[in-house]
Amino acid sequence: MTARLTPFELMEKLVSFPTVSRDSNLCLVDWVDGYLADHGITAHRHYSEDNQKAALFAHVGPEIAGGVVLSGHTDVVPVDGQPWATDPFTVDVRDGKYFGRGCVDMKGFDALAIWALVEAHHAGVKRPLQLALSYDEEVGCVGAPPMIRAMQNRLPPASTVIVGEPSMMQAVTGHKGGQGFWTRIIGFEVHSSIMHEGVNAIMYGARLIEWANRTNARNMAATPGDMAAMFHPPWTTLHVGTIEGGTAHNITAKECRFGMDFRVVPGEDPDDWRDRYLEQVHAVEAEMQAVRPEARIEISRKFNVPGLKPEPGGAAEALVRSITGDNAAHVVSFGTEAGQFQRAGYSAVVCGPGDIAQAHQPDEYITREQFDAGHDFMRRLVTRLQDA
Predict the structure, then answer these.
(1) Nearest-angstrom CA–CA distance, 85 and 202
(2) What are phi and psi of 68, to 5 degrees?
């Protein structure tokens, strides 16, 4: 019989696959699929439209409804330009920490979830356990919705989802939602000495960015509602992280491109923020077209991630709290796939090992203490499913 790998051995293997979001994750999916098959577990895949990536999901235990889903993502952010002390795709152990790209976000949890699935299968649990590993979480959680639909078509319906994003093993019951939009401004080039006859795409784009700055200032100054007050920061934020465009310093920029992202506190409508942005876009576009009718602004969606809403008396929260003993209220400002599971009808909670502050960083790490806490959680969960 194939040996059962330890959680650490599983994490070492998963980290060794360089599944950066821009690249395929099939090397990792193939390996996990084979490892589960060696233990008598049938896994299913849902491929991306270009067939270069796949989500993987599996079910163990009786073929009945009401199971628990352990949810993670397989992709990681790039390491380009980051000053790593060691190979980011080889787990390095030092000072009580496990270093490697994905150790905390979130191949450490993925390893623990795979371990738990195999243990639950061999233990003969009475309540089912399911595994769900998505792709393209890091580029806007775009791989989870089709995976969830595929799971609902292939597996007995589970009721509870634990999304293992790093939360220091605390039960996170709410997070902000998010929308992002690619903004492409097409101006009209002329020599900068007669700039009034052209349309400088960068300078008009700056008007939209300045609107975001003013809006952030107003949001920050406003008194937050009860739900928003739980978050840090307790307001909806607007953010532009990259911008590019222009040809030369003495030519009005023909094109400008940037992303405008919104992280929306629960209680506010993300679509309302979309509409506010589009109103500004149309106003700026009208000014551009008053100079050159062919100037325009093109908007396309980057991502749309629903927030996670607290569920009073929710099954997922109750399960995690009963295992961890954590009864405090926790929310986070980053997005996860938990809101997508919740929207699909599952009770969802975020609970995973490690600190989000280490995610995406050079020399990303998870502490041995947190990884062990995650392992203990999984042991307790399997026991709970055996006794159900």
Answers:
(1) 38
(2) -110, 135
| Strand, coil or helix: 101 | coil
Q: For position 1, what pLDDT does the model report?
A: 54
**Lookup: tokens for 132:** 């769900």
Beta strand extents in the chain (DSSP E only)? 43-47, 54-60, 68-73, 92-94, 97-99, 129-134, 160-163, 172-175, 177-186, 237-239, 243-245, 255-264, 296-305, 330-332, 347-350, 365-367
- Mean per-residue pLDDT pooled into runs of 10, the chain (388 residues): 90 98 97 98 97 98 98 97 97 98 98 98 97 96 96 97 97 93 97 96 98 98 90 95 95 97 90 96 98 97 90 93 93 93 96 97 98 98 94
* Predicted structure pTM score: 0.90
40 C-beta neighbours (distance < 10 Å), count = 12
The residue whose two tokens read 């709290």 is 321
- Chain centre distance of CA 241: 17
